[in-house]
């Protein structure tokens, strides 16, 4: 085959970084993502290129790969397009004990630099891949190394394979001026389906924020400094959102979580829309302003996450709002409010608390933000009726679960002198209601027969320890006696637990449950022991019919006390 102009082999490509130079991954580039499975594809990029290389080696033919676009700067090669392939070959050559010189440097990704600089192939391959690896680059680098190692095990003559790679793997080598790098990068990647919108937005923002105009005359070194500083900031946001616990808390998996949707006031953000709104007539000023607004928004998001009380209220609301559209509506409302300079922290907290209280009883987003007291009155009346239901466990399980979750969340908010303790929302997915007095040992009378807790006819009453008719409490106020009745299914006899903890109780009596709750240790230690309201229940010295009825009255009193502030007479209307 006739040589094509600018076509070089891998050996020649490596020779471009002479005199201890580096392949440099610039700030506007995304991280290393080869090894990531993509929708609709059976084979990821690492497996795909390995298949191509191994087949070429077995067939004794040259392999031509996509062109690599670079900027040559002294002894270094800046990768405009081709960093994924270059990084892959770095890993492949290292796995083959390549004796020559090769070095990659990330302009801003310190952890990636450190990982590649201290690469230990054997250690990586002998250790299980950590799915919770906090740094995305490092995760996919390790995944690629493991995949490479596995495929190389089937190649008998690795020295011959290395020689093939160096001489018969061909690239189209395209050098361009450094001043054009970022805009060419954006143009080249704008139509790439594999590049995410967030990554295109980042590269375009970085380019726009470091434009050189007639009125702003700055050196390329200053341009590079600006791009690197902003890129590091962007990547710090990316790292923050890449934490699995934060993703679970905010119910989001996108690269930058809710940051871009909240900035754009749109649940879904595309590169095209973002560019139209922010960069169509891009200036340095407009791009830096966009960065500033995102910086302030990200700080507000992080502050809400770190503040225990806000964390608890927002976390609960995000579970009450059980789809992303309503979650987005709430988050947009809250963070717009949190960044309002006319409102102080206490005012923001008060409005958030009202949203939390109203959302818990079922008021929708629009009615909450519009202070619709008609909607509130209706929702409160319905919730109170449900919570008062003597057969709540059967007829209003969700009402009971919400109320008991709220009781435990509110206790956490009171900790540390009112600064609060973060509630563990894992229980929301594993919640379970436990009958404090075991329901299987409760029965009730009917006209012709005795019935168990499930209204089934009971032939043998020997195991019954409490009759429903005895679940009552008499209160004397100013000489006037009032009797309150309840059942084993009422809020007075229910407590919140993790499902696994609940299963440990079986049909035990209160003393046995109490003992298990406070003493069980080891791998099976009760997770429910972080639930302060639940702890307060098991701290009782006894639990009988009077306890159930009394506790029901107490819980309903708490509901009225905490929600009386929203009565119209106490509102500003």
Q: What are the salient characteristics of this protein?
A:
3 domains; alpha/beta; 14 strands; elongated; 11% strand; 573 residues
Structural summary, described in words:
The chain has 573 residues and is of the alpha/beta class. The protein folds into three domains: 7-189, no CATH class; 198-379 and 393-408, no CATH class; 431-570, no CATH class. It is 51% helix and 11% strand. It contains 26 helices and 14 strands. The protein has helices at residues 10-14, 45-59, 83-95, 110-117, 121-125, 136-152, 158-168, 181-189, 197-209, 220-241, 244-250, 259-264, 271-278, 284-306, 308-320, 324-338, 345-360, 365-369, 373-387, 392-395, 397-413, 426-430, 499-505, 510-519, 532-538, 545-563; strands spanning 7-9, 23-25, 63-64, 68-73, 76-81, 104-106, 169-175, 431-435, 442-445, 450-452, 466-467, 472-477, 480-485, 494-498. The strands form four sheets. Strands 1, 2, 3, 4, 5, 6 and 7 form a seven-stranded mixed sheet that branches. Strands 10-9-11 form a three-stranded mixed sheet, with no helix packed on it. The chain has a two-stranded antiparallel ribbon with strand order 8-14. A hairpin with a 2-residue loop joins strand 12 (472-477) and strand 13 (480-485). Helix 3 crosses helix 6, helix 8 (181-189) runs antiparallel to helix 9 and helix 15 packs antiparallel against helix 21 (397-413). The longest helix is centred in the middle third of the chain and has 23 residues, at 284-306. It is elongated and about 100 Å long.
